Amino acid sequence: TDVGRWVVRVRSGLKAVRHENLHPAAAEIPDAARRGLGGAAAATAHLLLELARSGGHRALSAVMLPACVLLWIVATLAGCYWLHRPLITPEAALPGISEMGIAPPARGVYRSGSATVGLLMACTVRLYSMLLLPHLADSNAAARAPESTNMGYVAALGVAVQGVFTLETSVSPQTSLHFAGAIAFVLGTMWHADASNALFADLGDSALALSPAARIAIGLRRVCSEGLPVMLMLVPAGLEAWQWATSNQLKGGRLQNIISAAQWAVVLNFGVFYCTYACDFWVAIEAS
After folding, report:
1. Which of 70, 85, 94, 204 has the highest Cβ tally under 10 A?
2. Considering only CA atoms, which of 45, 60, 64, 28 is closest in space to residue 115?
3. What span, in angstroms and rounded, lies between the C-alpha atoms of 95 and 106?
4. In the chain, count of helices (H) and strands (E)?
């Protein structure tokens, strides 16, 4: 404005703000949060070094690995949401996941967090092939063991790619790589889950079959992979088709909120899926 103020849109309407009162969102990050992030990165690095030294045969570090996949997903989403919150439109209750990686400072958290999740997922799939597949060698679906491992690596690579090559506001090679990575993560996880569920359907008299914790984990993975993801992805698509067919427009960005909520639910659902391998790792190591 002529009096040296910026006019910004907030949830309550337009506000005129003096330029000296404007500051980057990164300035709102408490020092405790910065130290916590550094500590988490150091702890994760220590965990990976411990896994490399032990070859994945120490129960505590093996159990912590898939648990860290879920923890890093939650921490990345929470951190990006906190930093991206000033940019959320007033009618949006929840931003899309890819949207949070468009602008700094949330973009830095999105990239580093996604790369870490991808690395942890790849290490989890490696432990899966080392610790669990030998127990499933006599399964009727044993031929799908390489398939389950390879598609797990595809999903891990997809997470890292969509995180490093963040979404842009225009069509570009980077945007194409971002969507390719996101598709690889979703399809790779579902393909890995389908092969893994088939392998775990016939445990015979292995240690995994005798463990109540392992059986609960197997059942939870089925819930997380066989019906819930498809439902979460079909609901927004169904609402959009209904809106188009009936010419009924959802007000206040409700459709966008539903799509965003479905994205968050799918990603967290897959995080829980990988986290459940912690129970299987514990049982397999204790039985060896």
Report:
1. 70
2. 45
3. 12
4. 10, 2
With a cut of 60, say whether residue 252 has pLDDT above it.
no
Q: Is 23 exposed, middle or buried (0-12, 13-18, 19+ CB in 10 A)?
A: exposed
Region 238-254: mean pLDDT is 59
Structure-token pair, residue 254:
């409700």
What is the pLDDT averaged over residues 19-42?
Answer: 76
* Coil, helix or strand at residue 23: coil
- CA-closest candidate to residue 271, choices 130, 98, 68: 68
Mean local confidence (pLDDT), 177-205: 92
Task: Give dist(CA 183, CA 179) in Å, integer.
Answer: 6
- Of residues 119, 128, 174, the one with CA closest to residue 149: 128
- Measure the CA–CA gap between 129 and 132, rounded to whole angstroms: 6
Q: Rounded to whole angstroms, how far apart are CA atoms 213 and 211?
A: 5
Q: What is the DSSP letter of 13?
A: E
What span, in angstroms and rounded, lies between the C-alpha atoms of 229 and 38? 33
Please compute the mean of the pLDDT values over residues 148-170 and round it to a whole number: 95
Alpha-carbon span 223 to 3, nearest angstrom:
59
Helix (H, G, I), strand (E, B), or coil: what is residue 47?
Answer: helix
* Distance in angstroms (rounded) separating the CA atoms of residues 63 and 67: 7
Run of H or E including 8: strand 5-10
Predicted confidence at residue 238, as pLDDT, reads 65
Q: Which of the 8 DSSP states describes residue 258?
A: H
- The string of pLDDT tens digits covering residues 103-137 is 888 898 999 999 999 999 999 999 999 999 998 87
